[in-house]
Amino acid sequence: MKGRDVVLGTLLKRPMSGYDIKLVFEDVFSYFFDGSFGMIYPTLRQLEKEELISKEVVIQEGKPNKNVYSITEKGREEFNKYLEEDVQKEVLCSDFLMRMYFSDYVEKKKLIEWIEAEIMEKKKSVKQLQEKQLVWAKGITMSQKICLDVGISSYVAQIQTLEEKLLQLKQE
Amino acid sequence: MKGRDVVLGTLLKRPMSGYDIKLVFEDVFSYFFDGSFGMIYPTLRQLEKEELISKEVVIQEGKPNKNVYSITEKGREEFNKYLEEDVQKEVLCSDFLMRMYFSDYVEKKKLIEWIEAEIMEKKKSVKQLQEKQLVWAKGITMSQKICLDVGISSYVAQIQTLEEKLLQLKQE
DNA sequence: GCTGACATGTAAGCAGTTACATGATTAT
DNA sequence: ATAATCATGTAACTGCTTACATGTCAGC
Questions:
Q1: Which of B96, B146, B169 sits opposite A87 (nearest CB)?
Q2: How does pLDDT run across A135-157, given as a tens digit for each residue?
C-alpha cells in the first residue's frame, strides 16, 4: 500500500480536491495511515500525468479555487491492481514500547509518567473512534465498522493492561 | 526515536556486532520496530565516526571475523538525550485496515479471505510473544514484560473482534 | 487586528529500504 | 550438493516529511 493507492481509492467515493483528501485522511484513516499535503499534492500531479485521474478547476465564491480530481476508468483499473496484491504486513513503530524496553535506565518516576501519558493518549483515541461510530452510524458499511471496532478493542485492551501494570508499579 | 537511538540503546546491554544487533531487533523489537542490515551497518559506521561507540575486531574460529562495538561515555550521554525527548506518537500503518475500508469494492469472498488471513497472522504473533514470555521468564524486567503484555492483549482483542465480525459476515 | 479555516504548491532533505556483492562454515 | 547460518558492506533508489511560500475570507 502506497500513498498513491490510498489517494486513488479515496477518489472512488466522489471527486475531491487535495484539501478534501487530507480531511478524509484525518477523519477516517488517521489511526492506521498518515498522509501529508507534501505527499498528496505531488501524488495528484503524478496521477493526473498518468491519466489515472482528471482535473477540473472549480471556481468558488468566498473561497479559493479548487482543483477537483475525478478517477478515470484507467484509474479504477490501477486501483483494482492494488486490491489484487498480497496484503502487506502491518507496521507498528512505537516509541512508547521502545522506552518501556529501555526503562531500566530511567527512574521509576519517569517510567510512571510515560505510562500515565500513554494511557491518556489511548483513552483520547478510543473516545475519538467512538465519536466516529456515532457520527457515521448511518451510511457506514460493515467493513468500515470493522476498522473502527478493531481499533477500539485494541486500544481498550492496551489501556487495561497498562492500568494493571501501573497499579503494580505503584504498589512495589 | 530513530534507528541510531535504538542501536545505541541496544549496545548498553553488552558489546555487539551489527549481526548481533539484527538478531536482537528480530527477537525483541520486531513487533514495534523494524531495522534492516542496510540501516544497521551504515549507522554503526556513523556512530563510530562520532565516537559514540568504539570498534574492536574479534577474530573467530570457524566463523567470519566480527566487528564488535561498545558504547562510549559520549554514547551514553547521547542515549540519555533521547530518553529526555518527548515520547513520539505511535505510528501504525495497516494495509489490512485499509482494505477493510475499501472492501465495498471487492467480493464478500475476498473480504472473508482477508479477515481469515489476518486472524491467522495475529494468532501467530500472539504465540510468538507468549513463547518469549516463557523463554525470558527469568531475567526479564517489569517494563520489558509490559512490552510483551501490551502486545499480547492488543492482538488478543483484535482477534476476538475479527472473529465476531467473521461470524456475522458468514451468517448474512 | 488576528486567528483559523480554506486552498495549493515546491524544494531540499532524510531515514531508511532493496538489491546486490562476497565468502566461510555447518548441517542435511 | 545445497541450504542455512554467520558475517559485512555499498549504492541506488524511494517515498515520504519538513519547511517554506502565498493568498483569501470569516469570525471573534
A1: B96
A2: 888 888 888 899 999 999 999 99
